[in-house]
Design a protein that fits this description.
The chain is α+β, with helices and mostly antiparallel strands. The chain is built from five helices and six strands; from the N terminus they run αββαββααββα. It is 31% helix and 15% strand. It is globular.
């Protein structure tokens, strides 16, 4: 619920007036401008549905990878589609996981057809100090 409430994202050129390069931003529930109720209400509803239906929740980076803007690049659609396919097939439910330091998120160690280095963000950065 923390990541849903935080809504860490970026304003990007083509979707925001006056933006020429990505600017980190927060948008509660990834759509704050469109929410008539307080974000906590939506987080509570999400938590209730996850609990009621015993759903898995997946947090996916569809944004930047491999370095800051100008160094890294957008996550490829091939990788994004491959991860979604592995969710739908049930492969990720059975995967072996590692914990991502700092965020305490469980990250799969491998996914069929995906370069394992891309799964843990720090592995895609040449400058590990800049990542940290």
């Amino acid at each position: 619920m923390y990541h849903f409430i935080s809504g860490y994202t970026a304003k990007v050129a083509g979707t925001e007036v006056g933006i020429t390069e990505p600017v980190p931003s927060f948008s509660a529930c990834f759509g704050e401008a469109f929410l008539p109720l307080h974000p906590f209400k939506y987080a509570k509803m999400l938590a209730e549905m996850v609990d009621k239906y015993q759903s898995n929740v997946w947090l996916m980076n569809t944004g930047w990878s491999g370095g800051m803007y100008g160094v890294g690049k957008r996550m490829s659609l091939k990788v994004t589609r491959g991860l979604i396919d592995s969710i739908h097939s049930g492969e990720l439910e059975k995967a072996e996981y590692q914990t991502m330091p700092g965020f305490n998120l469980r990250v799969p160690k491998s996914v069929t057809g995906i370069d394992s280095n891309i799964l843990l963000p720090i592995n895609t950065w040449k400058d590990k100090q800049a990542y940290n």
